[in-house]
Each structure stands twice: as C-alpha cells, then as structure tokens.
Design goal:
This protein is mainly alpha-helical and 182 residues long. It is built from eight helices and two strands; from the N terminus they run H-E-E-H-H-H-H-H-H-H. A two-stranded antiparallel sheet has the order 1-2.
Length: 182
C-alpha cells in the first residue's frame, strides 16, 4: 500500500479545514433521485425513474427506463425512399436490391405505412437457366449408354443433379441404374 507523503497529508488537512468532513446521512443515496416507502417497497419519487426499482416484480433486478430510438436523417430519408418505391409498385426484392437494404426493412416499412407490397417474380418461372458449356463438355465424353448417372458424376467431377439436368435438357442416353437392377 502506498504511503501518503507529508505534502499530500498537508493538502488533505487544508481541504478538511476549508470544507469540513462530509458525511452521508442514513437513508441517503448517491442516486440523483429520492426514494419513497409505499408500504411494501421503496419506489422512486420521480415517476420517470420508476423503472429503476424492480423489473417485472423481480426484486434485485434493474432495467433501463424506456426511451425512443435515435434515428438519423439518412435513415429517415431512406425510409421515405423505400415507402415511395413500394407505392410505385416495385417488389420487396427489387427495392432491397436497388436501394441496398434488407428485405426485412422493406417489409417493416410497408407494415408501418400500411402499404401493400407487390410480389415479384421468383426468377425461375418460365425461364430455364442456361447450361454451362464447360460443365457440359466435361460430362459428354463419359456418356456412352453404359455408365449410370452416379458413375458419370463421379468421373466428371460434377454432382448427380448436374448430370441429371443435362440428361433431361439434352436428351442424353444414360441408363437408369434402378431399371438395370430389375
């Protein structure tokens, strides 16, 4: 433990002579608000601080008083832009992509403003994804009418699903392994 030198001791004595000894009285707290006994428990005299006593009736637990969430000007403007895009009839995915925000935020703003969102196309309806020519070129040398989908997938380094997709779209002659067993 550090020792107090004579200079520090002199400063402490001067302070005590000028201001005296400060004592905290019984029942006084360092908190900035007063407590009142209501017959069962201590509650804050200031209604704004009532949340500091017990949270949800559990003694000893403390909760922060409720307060509003800070929103920046940028957030407010972005919300207005999203709401306008919903009114213009764009889908949630389109808005999220164009305005670089989440789809959940778009839904939340639509709900808050009471707006009905348009449902967008899934992207897979009516259109088939193009086949990757490089993958098809790896699969074709192994299609000989003898090998199964599993064998071709293993030899070409592709998934079974990829080989089946090529079989379906290109009409490849690949025997069904199940029918060979029967």
């Amino acid at each position: 433990m550090d020792e107090i030198c004579s200079e520090e001791r002199a400063l402490i004595e001067d302070h005590l002579r000028e201001r005296g000894v400060t004592r905290v009285g019984p029942g006084v707290t360092a908190a900035g608000f007063d407590y009142v006994w209501d017959g069962q428990r201590l509650i804050s005299a200031d209604p704004r601080n009532r949340g500091w006593g017990s949270a949800g009736g559990r003694p000893g637990s403390v909760r922060q008083p409720a307060r509003g969430q800070y929103r920046s000007e940028e957030d407010i403007l972005k919300d207005k832009e999203i709401a306008q895009a919903i009114r213009d009839g764009l889908s949630g995915k389109q808005i999220a992509h164009q305005l670089d925000t989440s789809a959940a935020r778009v839904r939340r703003i639509a709900r808050r403003h009471g707006l009905k969102q348009e449902r967008g196309e899934s992207g897979m309806k009516g259109a088939e994804l193009p086949l990757d020519e490089a993958v098809t070129a790896r699969i074709l040398p192994f299609v000989d009418g003898q090998r199964s989908v599993t064998q071709i997938a293993r030899l070409s380094g592709c998934t079974i699903r990829t080989v089946r997709l090529r079989q379906k779209r290109l009409g490849l002659d690949i025997p069904d392994k199940r029918s060979a067993r029967a």
